[in-house]
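User: Hi! I have a protein structure encoded as tokens and I'd like to know what sequence might fold into it. I'm fairly new to this, so please keep things simple.
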């Protein structure tokens, strides 16, 4: 990370002082969060460290402006500066991804997915229905027509990856609105290889006939072939929607190219901005010109006023990602994940799909006699921040789980390379080997409690601190 000069440190201190004068606990928590982030080995695959220019851009009065609508077509007066911000962010996103259209208003990944779903529904169903009913706009519909339309919408079918195979809650999980508003069928992975089985997917799709085929994941350690996904979608008349929330940075950094790049294959692509893309917390949607008009209606369909200060920060993050240095970063993220996976496997840790070719690794910790929850907690006690995750067909369910997901985007931003990730693999394996489940009253291994052999947690923390000190976060920033 680039060295920060001392006037910026002084400025940050002053700014925290301003916050402190209003609510000291918030200033203290903000300082303390920086200290915690600096001191922990952050391996959460969905997290990163945004640059200071990106962070600074969020702290301005752009936040104060209401700007519902679209560029040049707002429901509020005086939006000229927000127009500039949104147009620049959208231009950078289009150029970065080579997309026909970019909508940068969604507040988060879930919002981006809701915009995507509703715009696909309205493009595929609303317009034909309006035509059938002889209405020009939805405002011309009677209450009965609306009943009709709602029934049609509710009957729609979506097919996405199941949660325990690595899909996301928004891909049709029963406790998410996507699982309520759609008839849902999920696809998993091949039980032997752990990989997506495209032939089976095609056979399932032929039977289920989804309106929307969703591709994308949060915990699948492999690349997806979007050309094959497109063929399957075309075969059954589905719209192909790709949720690249996790791997947008690898697309932006040109690690995923050709058939591994969803843009050009998918009709609609949604994403977060804060994961591997390393921007502010937020979302965006890319679309073909065919789907653009319905995506453009994200507000008022799903969203209220855009977060203009965050759109400004997205513009910076997209601009940063267009620099050559971001391509180096993205390649390092993927190379480091390989080094981490190899380091773990050679020390006897079992990985789902026996490796990785993206930014994340999914460990199956059951061979250590541990649940994901126990492993996650023992690692945290040792200064290693991860999150537990289901493995395919997980016998421990979604709460305790049998897996731990780790990723390389954040520590790669700090400057970690293959040697450091091999050292991280050594630390993780050491903790897992030293952790034993506490047996229940009935004598069976418990799912939550555990003990770590004496001294291991402290030794791991010290070794992690050494790695972290050699690769400082926001170097030069002293508060
Ligand atoms: C993280 C994630 C989301 C949701 O993003 P939020 O910003 O937390 O709402 C959606 N889809 C996928 C695949 C994700 O990994």
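Assistant: Happy to help. Inverse folding works backwards from shape to sequence: for each of the 479 positions I chose a residue that suits the local structure. Here it is:
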């Amino acid at each position: 990370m680039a060295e920060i000069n001392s006037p910026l440190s002084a400025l940050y201190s002053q700014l925290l002082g301003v916050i402190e004068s209003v609510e000291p606990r918030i200033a203290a928590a903000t300082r303390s969060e920086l200290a915690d982030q600096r001191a922990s080995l952050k391996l959460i695959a969905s997290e990163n460290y945004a640059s200071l220019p990106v962070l600074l851009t969020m702290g301005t009065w752009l936040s104060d402006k209401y700007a519902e609508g679209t560029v040049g077509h707002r429901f509020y007066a005086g939006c000229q500066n927000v127009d500039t911000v949104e147009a620049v962010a959208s231009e950078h996103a289009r150029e970065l991804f080579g997309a026909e259209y970019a909508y940068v208003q969604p507040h988060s990944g879930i919002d981006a997915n809701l915009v995507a779903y509703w715009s696909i529904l309205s493009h595929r169903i609303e317009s034909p229905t309006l035509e059938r009913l002889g209405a020009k706009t939805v405002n011309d519909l009677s209450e009965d027509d609306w009943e009709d339309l709602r029934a049609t919408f509710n009957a729609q079918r979506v097919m996405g990856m199941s949660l325990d195979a690595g899909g996301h809650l928004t891909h049709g999980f029963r406790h998410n609105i996507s699982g309520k508003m759609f008839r849902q069928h999920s696809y998993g992975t091949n039980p032997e290889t752990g990989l997506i089985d495209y032939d089976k997917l095609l056979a399932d799709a032929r039977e289920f006939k989804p309106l929307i085929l969703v591709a994308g994941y949060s915990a699948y350690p492999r690349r997806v072939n979007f050309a094959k996904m497109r063929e399957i979608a075309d075969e059954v008349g589905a719209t192909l929607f790709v949720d690249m929330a996790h791997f947008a940075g690898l697309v932006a950094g040109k690690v995923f190219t050709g058939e591994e790049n969803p843009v050009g294959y998918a009709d609609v692509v949604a994403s977060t901005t804060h994961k591997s893309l390393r921007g502010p917390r937020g979302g965006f949607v890319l679309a073909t010109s065919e789907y653009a008009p319905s995506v453009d209606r994200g507000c008022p369909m799903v969203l209220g006023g855009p977060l203009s200060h965050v759109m400004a920060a997205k513009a910076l993050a997209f601009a940063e990602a267009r620099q050559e240095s971001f391509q180096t970063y993205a390649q390092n993220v993927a190379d480091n994940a390989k080094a981490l996976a190899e380091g773990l496997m050679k020390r006897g840790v079992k990985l789902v799909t026996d490796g990785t070719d993206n930014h994340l690794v999914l460990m199956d910790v059951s061979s250590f006699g541990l649940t994901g929850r126990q492993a996650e907690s023992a690692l945290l006690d040792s200064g290693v921040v991860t999150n537990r995750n289901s493995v395919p067909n997980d016998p421990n369910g979604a709460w305790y789980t049998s897996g731990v997901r780790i990723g390389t985007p954040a520590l790669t931003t700090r400057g970690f390379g293959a040697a450091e990730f091999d050292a991280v693999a050594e630390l993780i394996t050491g903790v897992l080997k030293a952790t034993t489940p506490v047996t229940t009253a009935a004598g069976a291994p418990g799912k939550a409690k555990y003990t770590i052999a004496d001294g291991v947690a402290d030794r791991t923390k010290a070794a992690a601190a050494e790695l972290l000190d050699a690769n400082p976060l926001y170097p030069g920033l002293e508060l």
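A useful reference point when you look it over: The mean pLDDT is 94. Feel free to ask if any position seems puzzling.
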